[in-house]
Amino acid sequence: MSRTERRPAARTGPPMEAPRFVGRRREVSQARQMLSHTRLLTLTGVGGVGKTRLAARVAETLGRTYKDGVETVELATLEAGDLLAPTVAAALGLPEAGPDPATMLVDYLADKRMLLVLDNCEHLLEDCARLVEQLLRGAARLRILVTSRQTLRVSGEQVLVVPSLSVPDHGHQPSDIARHDSVRLFVDRAASVWPGFSLDARNAACLARLAQRLEGIPLAIELAAARLRAVPLEQLTREVEEHFDVVARASPTGLPRHRTLRATMDWSFDLCSPAEQRLWARLSMFPGGTDLDTAEAVCAGDEIDLADVIDLLAGLVDKSVLVGEQGQAGVRYRMLESIRAYGYERLDPSEARALRGRYIDHYRDVVEGHRIDRIVPDQLERYRLLRRELPNVRAALEMCLSEPSTAVEGLETATAMWLYWLLAGSLTEGRYWLERGLDLVPGAVGARAMALWVDSMLALRQGDLAVAMPSLEECHTMARQADNENVLPFAIRTSGLAAFSTGDAPRGLALLEESLALHRATGDIDSVAFNLYYAAVYGSTEDPARAARFGEELLALCETHHASMSCSHAKLALGIAMWNLGDCCRAGALVSEAAEFAQKINDRWTLTQCLEVLAWTAGARGDHERAARTLGAAHALWQVVGTTPARLGYHARWHERCAEQSRRKLGERAFTAAFRDGARHGLEPGLISAIGA
């Protein structure tokens, strides 16, 4: 059956809304009360008991309590403890500007009155404990809510053990049975698969028996409720009781709650067809979920027919093993972490080895086929796809870099994502993967040479010259060896950026132009574009007329190829050059357009620079109050991105002049009031277009 003849993805079930929160009034109240007296609260309990949903509910009810908001960081898909701090920073919208993300986090949170939720910490327990201690020491008004199967054992930690939902005793009346949260949850979930389902006198006893057998564990209840798609309630109750009786006879000491959940998942697994069981196990390799095409590419074969994958996915959605979520890119399938961990246990080691190769090959192709350092019309879509697939790409990198035989593939994949690491502000993560790969690939191979210039560039962006310069020197040495000549233009370009960072602007511009000429000679239009950007921005104060020519060429190139993200960067670069040429009006118009696009896609690094330039243009027009307010809004974002205008030579001089002029015209008190107002309120609706007008 061809793809066009298949049933549409909607066959797998309607788009899933967030499940309705049921019960837990006492636990929500307890958690709220405890957080009013402690700065660290850990919710613990067995898998599937509902720690994540309880934390989300508590965070929702406390949203207005914290002036600086509530932020939740999901850690279930993160497997490398070294990436914990940069992952939390990224979740808070902090692109990295230094080699120590934990210190940057402390600096950012130091004056914040915020609740930070760290969800699913048990597999990163020591790393989470260290980071939490550091954050609590450095941010006096910060409160942290953690979910974990184990406590962090951090000083001052208070613990709330999340119990199972209440279950009815034997012999209660329907009205009494209906008051128990376990029954209410089952009825709620049953109604989503069997419209009109409700508790009444005829089914109350069955519901009570089910709740008792499942011991009030929410995940077990939801898996059981999904079975109502296939069988009536009475049969479901018999199935559960018969299965648990068999398990209980094999366990003389009874069934602890974690074994109750395990028994429920065993039962759900046994209800699946052999092909569904295999797909469940294979899909457990995807920490970030998957779409249909990926499931087919990686999981089909070896007793799973390609044409059957879509129906097998539908079966797993029907059984609540998978959740199907409709997004702009289509339906994406994911598992709750407890279900994914169970599936991974059921994956045969020999099958896992076979899948590992397909998984690595698939995500190498994904990264290479969606490179965002290409001047193409779908740049933004590529960027969003990489963001969506990042947990799975991380898993592929971990697989590659865990064995020397695949280290080159991992290094090449991490290198190909260089612009993603930059735009996402994931500099520490990029360097983490690159440096792990470089340690495993010591020979003079092309993959190492390419990785070295990327690693040195990321280190430069973080101000880590101690690492950047030796890596860059080695890159130059390797680039002059046979078969590595294609690396030389990149090495020269990075040397140019290094020269600017050390204050040698003339040499920096000369090196950028040398690299540009080499890229032109090879017809590498994508690399030409990036050289033009750097030459326009960094050269704007050294030779603004030449920088403007670079900017005009870059903008024309991006517009010709309909590369929307690069167009935004080109407008910023050209706008800075035009400002240095004295054309305030064109500078304001260009940078306003760049800022609006950056705001739309949450590109804070570009937006911060745009606001800085727009403050200058407001001051040039004599609107000094607006200039001061915009400097304040930019200042708030400079803090978010972890740097200052002084660290960028093409911003430093004009920032000081704008601030000094506005302060002189307004007076110290009025300037400070406007600046603080801008920092406090940030980007109000219509602010960008008003500033650029």
Commentary on this structure:
The chain is mainly alpha-helical and 693 residues long. 63% of the residues lie in helices and 5% in strands. It is built from 33 helices and 8 strands. Strands 2-3-4-1-5 form a 5-stranded parallel β-sheet, with helices on both faces. A 3-stranded antiparallel β-sheet has the order 6-8-7. The radius of gyration is 28 Å and the shape is globular. Residues 1-28 are annotated as: Disordered.
Secondary-structure map:
Elements: H1 25-35, E1 40-44, H2 51-61, E2 70-74, H3 84-91, H4 101-109, E3 115-119, H5 125-138, E4 143-147, E5 158-161, H6 174-177, H7 181-193, H8 204-213, H9 218-226, H10 233-249, H11 257-271, H12 274-283, E6 290-291, H13 292-299, H14 309-318, E7 323-327, E8 330-334, H15 337-345, H16 349-369, H17 379-401, H18 407-416, H19 418-423, H20 427-440, H21 446-461, H22 465-479, H23 488-501, H24 505-522, H25 525-538, H26 544-560, H27 564-581, H28 584-600, H29 604-620, H30 624-641, H31 649-666, H32 668-681, H33 687-692
Parallel strand pairs: 1-4, 1-5, 2-3, 3-4
Antiparallel strand pairs: 6-8, 7-8
Beginning-to-end CA distance, first to last residue? 57 Å
Q: Whole-number radius of gyration? A: 28 Å
* Mean pLDDT across residues: 88
Strand content: 5-15%
Question: Unreliable stretches, pLDDT < 50, 5 or more residues?
Answer: 1-17
The spatial strand order of the largest sheet comes to: 2-3-4-1-5
- Outline the biggest β-sheet: 5 strands, parallel
Gross morphology: globular
InterPro entries: AAA_22, HTH_77, P-loop_NTPase, TPR-like_helical_dom_sf
Protein name: NB-ARC domain-containing protein
Pfam family, one: HTH_77
